[in-house]
């Protein structure tokens, strides 16, 4: 089973990556959704015991994807943050990541958890609620847009096959592609394939496509 899958969306060649990212070679850009930086820290601050190291792991995954794709930029399709921006552990990991990748351009579409993003000082570009680029419209939540094919996140789509654990998936619909949640610490929304839909399961190391295009 492949670690990447070349497909065409809205006439544009793109590549699905098993570690929950979409690569747009023409722009040398990676798209990810629902990074949720600081989610575990926010839960711990509320007295809920969770293991540490999730942010550092997710950022190391981004770094590996950037290196493998030789990407110049990473665009996050909303929910970059989760909760407070003053918790030192995830901020320390983020600052170290930016120091290691000073030339990497990072841009973010506003998500429903990103209320503190505009004042967080994370060395990123803020794209607003939605932005059009080529044949694509980048936003956080799924919605039809007459301007182009929507790339988004928000739903954290997952699919469970008989005898297998629940697996993150890309959800390809006519006019809209929903990316899996990038963060390792997220729940999932079970997807139901409609006519013309495709699910591409991604377990971090391989991809499996279900449905007919």
What would your notes on this structure say?
With 213 residues, this protein is of the alpha/beta class. The chain has one domain: Purple Acid Phosphatase, chain A, domain 2. Helix content is 17%, strand content 32%. The protein contains three helices and 16 strands. Strands 8, 9, 10, 11, 12, 13, 14, 15 and 16 form a nine-stranded mixed sheet that branches. Strand 2 and strand 3 form a beta hairpin. Residues 43-51 have low confidence and may be disordered.
Rg: 16 Å
Order of helices and strands: EEEEHHEHEEEEEEEEEEE
Number of domains: 1
CATH architecture: 4-Layer Sandwich
Residue stretches low in confidence (pLDDT < 50, at least 5 long) are 43-51
Mean pLDDT: 87
Q: Can you tell me the CATH topology? A: Purple Acid Phosphatase, chain A, domain 2
Quick one: biggest sheet?
Answer: 9 strands, mixed
How many strand elements?
A: 16
Label the structural class: alpha/beta
Task: Name the CATH class.
Answer: Alpha Beta
Individual helix count: 3
Binned, the helix content reads 10-25%
- Rough shape? globular
Taken as a percent bin, the fraction of beta residues is: 25-35%
What distance lies between the first and last C-alpha atoms, to the nearest angstrom?
19 Å
């Amino acid at each position: 089973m492949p670690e990447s899958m070349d497909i065409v969306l809205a006439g544009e060649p793109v590549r699905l990556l098993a570690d929950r990212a979409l690569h747009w070679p023409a722009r040398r850009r990676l798209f990810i959704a629902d990074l949720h930086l600081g989610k575990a820290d926010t839960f711990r601050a509320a007295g809920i015991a969770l293991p540490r190291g999730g942010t550092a792991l997710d950022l190391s995954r981004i770094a590996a994807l950037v290196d493998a794709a030789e990407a110049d930029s990473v665009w996050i399709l909303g929910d970059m943050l989760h909760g407070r921006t003053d918790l030192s552990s995830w901020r320390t990991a983020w600052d170290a990541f930016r120091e290691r990748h000073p030339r990497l351009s990072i841009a973010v579409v506003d998500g429903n958890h990103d209320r503190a993003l505009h004042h967080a000082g994370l060395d990123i570009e803020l794209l607003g609620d939605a932005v059009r680029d080529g044949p694509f419209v980048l936003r956080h939540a799924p919605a039809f847009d007459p301007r182009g094919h929507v790339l988004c996140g928000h739903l954290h789509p997952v699919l469970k096959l008989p005898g297998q654990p629940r697996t993150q998936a890309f959800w390809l619909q006519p006019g809209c592609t929903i990316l899996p949640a990038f963060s390792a610490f997220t729940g999932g929304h079970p997807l139901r394939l409609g006519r013309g839909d495709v699910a591409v399961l991604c377990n971090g190391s391989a991809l499996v496509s279900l449905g007919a295009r």
